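User: Quick one: structure for sequence A, then sequence B.

Assistant: Sequence A:
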Amino acid sequence: MIQKNPFNGLTFLLTRDPDSNKKLARVLTGMSAHVIDWPGFKYVEKRTTPLLKDCLNHIADFDWIIFTSTRAVFYFLKKYHAVHCGLKPLARVKVAAVGIKTAELAKEQGMAVHLCPQRPSIKSLVEESAFKNSKNKRIFIPRSEDARDDFVRAYQKIHEIHHFVFYKKRFIKQDSHDVIRLKQTGVDWVLFFSPSAVASFTNNFCRQHEAVVFLQRTKVAVIGKTTASHLDSLGVAPCVVSKKSTGDDLIKGILKHVLSKHI
């Protein structure tokens, strides 16, 4: 018999940034789960260099802006509005967004999105005809410090690409007493959305081996093959690997796994 509240009595440890953890926690607690907020990192804005400021001042001269995440949209607009009033300079600039959430946020902020690859990945963006079948386009890319460079490497000799680090992740050090308590009590599930979140989690243990042993005796759910592969290299096999990069899809995968145990 399927339980009415399948997450009732289960404890989930969330390892995203504080804001993302709050959003995910609301969904899980609404499904009767207990949640432990264990942020792996926080986002920190990088300073605006003279070269970046010059590009922002002349943003209307670009053909494309590429957003690879919602954070890229947020930090771009924060710096953009520091030098511009209104979105008129962006009127003729085409926007490419990786992921539905990224595209939705860009639209909400008043930008027209001209391209959103069906698969939310940099690899899919590289394959888009808008870039493969053109030359000498001026492309602006606001990015994170640890962003992949696949697109830049693929097109740096074909297009004029200006890419800048707008923000970075800063690992959060958990209180040592909380780490001891976690090792003693354990949890039912640990959720990871990136390799950096895994690295932050293991760094909070005195020894990496202790973190690995903890994860091996805990159910682990992750977003994407890259994060899953990173865990596999540590000797941890995730129970759930979501192909789509959203919290909702990861929860659906966990729910399917939990319900399968009650059939």
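Sequence B:
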Amino acid sequence: MYHALFAGNREIFVTETEKLRNWKESAGFLTITQVGDSDEALSSLRDEHFDLIITDIHMPKMTGVRLLLEIKKIQPALCVAFFSEYSDFEYARYGMILGAFDYFTDFSDRERFMAAIRRARTFSERKLKTCSRNDFIFCPAAEAKNMLAIITFGSNFERIPELFEKCAKNITRLFGEDSAHARATLYNLFAIVRAAIFAQHPWLKLYIGESATADYASELRTLIDIINRLIRPGIPQNMRDICTFILENPESKVTLSVISSRFYLNNTYLSAIFHQKTGWRFNDYVMMARMERARCLLYKRQLKIYEISGLLGYRDTNYFNRLFKKYFGKTPTEFQALSAVDSTARFASNGS
């Protein structure tokens, strides 16, 4: 038998959780303890063992999300579910990535609640087995913080997909392969890591088409490959800043004079030092940024080829076509045809 703790004193929370007391035996819970606020919840948690906590998101002293963080310091693998009469999506999403087990807006759906309880019981049993072997300690929030730190400080950037895959396996191990909570936690983790990458490299959105894969680690690997290809790892910060400016403005007139003026450098010196530090000649790098942007625009198929050519500063479409073929080995028309076939194939694969 299992033990549950309900934390909250608002009338609607007390009324809703009162329904659960009638179901506790069929749900396999021996006791249900009710407390009014976060301090009482944490005090009870330190004195007693609980298998499930249902907390009101809206509480005095601290929110349910903040309480979740404190609970994880005491019992990292404890099942915690949120309650709110409103669909607080951002709260729910943030809570899921921090380790919340489920989210309820009411307890009128007995079957949904019982399904959640069964998942909680399975989780508790799996946790006991793994912890008894003393070989498995895992917290999604800690893994997320580790990946976000790598993204922010830029060291070991290529490890992100590997860490994500490891995290995904651990999430599946904790919640089960078919668990809706496992899928939600994994997606929210991916969304947060992906958003952090784009926040650190805003220019990336200009070079990425729509995702057609549910393989999150593969998509993260693609993002990191593009970043490392367009801004080579290890180049000095001032050169990174110049590369970033060029990548942010592939549709603008970016010349050596424009960059020299913006970064207070002599034209001749800039040309030489850029080649020396990055391995690219300045004009080749600008051309590369434009071709990569062209590829993204061609893949989206929203503009005609001559429109893309003009947008990127090439008034002569034939010249643009030659540059594109020199860079990618295919003409824009050939590339667009192949990308359409690839997109259809991936759509069919995802739909099967």
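Residues 130-138, 343-352 have pLDDT under 50 and may be disordered. Residues 231-351 form a domain with the Arc Repressor Mutant, subunit A fold (CATH 1.10.10.60).

User: Thanks, that's what I needed.
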